[in-house]
Amino acid sequence: MNSVLNFGSINIDHVYRVDHFVRPGETLNCRDYHRFAGGKGLNQSIALAQADASVVHAGKLGAGDGWLKTLMAGKGVDTRFVETVDGPSGHAVIQVNSAGENAIVIVGGANRLIDENDVQRILAGFGPHDYLLVQNEVSAVPQILLSAKAQGMTVVFNPAPMTLEVPDYPLDRVDILIVNTVEAHSLTGESEPERICEIFRRRYPHAAMVLTLGSRGAIYCNPQMQIHQPAEQVNAVDTTGAGDTFIGFFLAELIRSADPNSALAFASRAAALCVTRQGAADSIPHRTEIEMPITE
């Protein structure tokens, strides 16, 4: 069975519901506060597991936060490479406004302690039948991309959050790049999906790209095809975690079916369910729910 090794962040999300995003110099009362498990890596691993993929998570967390590892294991994630270190876990401060949009500040914490020795040790057990998934919330991302490709793995990269260093990463080692329009603009200088796909095909003719468009859906493109999947129409409660849910369900279904059409539709349905619920990891649906009507 194909396994997905996810080198990913593990965060604690502090979520504040507000009428509007706080402005410079403003002090704002929040309407509600919750603490959730989060981090793009954790969310995507749980989404993969919820979509019935075989997923192994590699990451680090602070000594007092073992509940995060227990949560992942309880959702079906293989946590053998989740390691405890001295110091704080990664965490995020998230504002959610009355429209369900979010604004996020990330503190790297233990996520920034992954080094090249960790990469080589963990990747040694994986090979050409396996997939590597990585985001940009952990350290050593260039080494992860290079080493995974050297192992013959299928390399999937979600460069979020986008930083100035990402264009200098070894992106030619990436088999599937998953980006939103902001990230795509940073990499290509273009805002229109057609132009983004055109530039991507020219630069990386052996790779595929998934471009998420928010309420406009998503596009899959490679040199042979381009597919557009409209978004499901629902009343959003909280968009936190929707992109991670999309990625996990997309990759799980792509591995299962080898059909980008089916994978896009499956992921779109899962993301739509996610935004009707509060939280990040807690809002990710199970595969069995995708066949049920969405309750708005």
What secondary-structure arrangement, pairings included, does this model have?
Elements: E1 3-7, E2 11-17, E3 32-38, H1 40-50, E4 54-62, H2 66-74, E5 78-85, E6 90-96, E7 102-107, H3 116-123, E8 131-134, H4 141-150, E9 154-157, E10 176-180, H5 181-188, H6 193-203, E11 208-212, E12 218-222, E13 225-229, H7 242-257, H8 260-274
Parallel strand pairs: 1-4, 1-8, 2-6, 4-5, 8-9, 9-10, 10-11
Antiparallel strand pairs: 2-3, 6-7, 11-12, 12-13
Helix pairs in contact: 1-7, 3-4, 5-6, 7-8
Which regions are unreliable across 5 or more consecutive residues at pLDDT < 50? none
- For CATH, the homologous superfamily is named as Ribokinase
Mind telling me the CATH class?
A: Alpha Beta
Figure out the total of helices.
8
Strand order of the largest sheet: 5-4-1-8-9-10-11-12-13
Q: Main β-sheet, in a few words?
A: 9 strands, mixed
Average pLDDT value?
93
Share of residues in strands:
25-35%
Distance between the termini: 36 Å
Count of folded domains: 1
Decide which structural class fits the backbone.
alpha/beta
Give the ordered list of helices and strands. EEEHEHEEEHEHEEHHEEEHH
Q: Per the principal axes of the C-alpha atoms, what is the gross shape?
A: globular
**Helix-residue proportion:** 25-40%
Instruction: Calculate Rg over CA atoms.
Output: 18 Å
How many beta-strand segments? 13
CATH topology: UDP-N-acetylmuramoyl-L-alanine:D-glutamate ligase
**CATH-level-2 architecture:** 3-Layer(aba) Sandwich
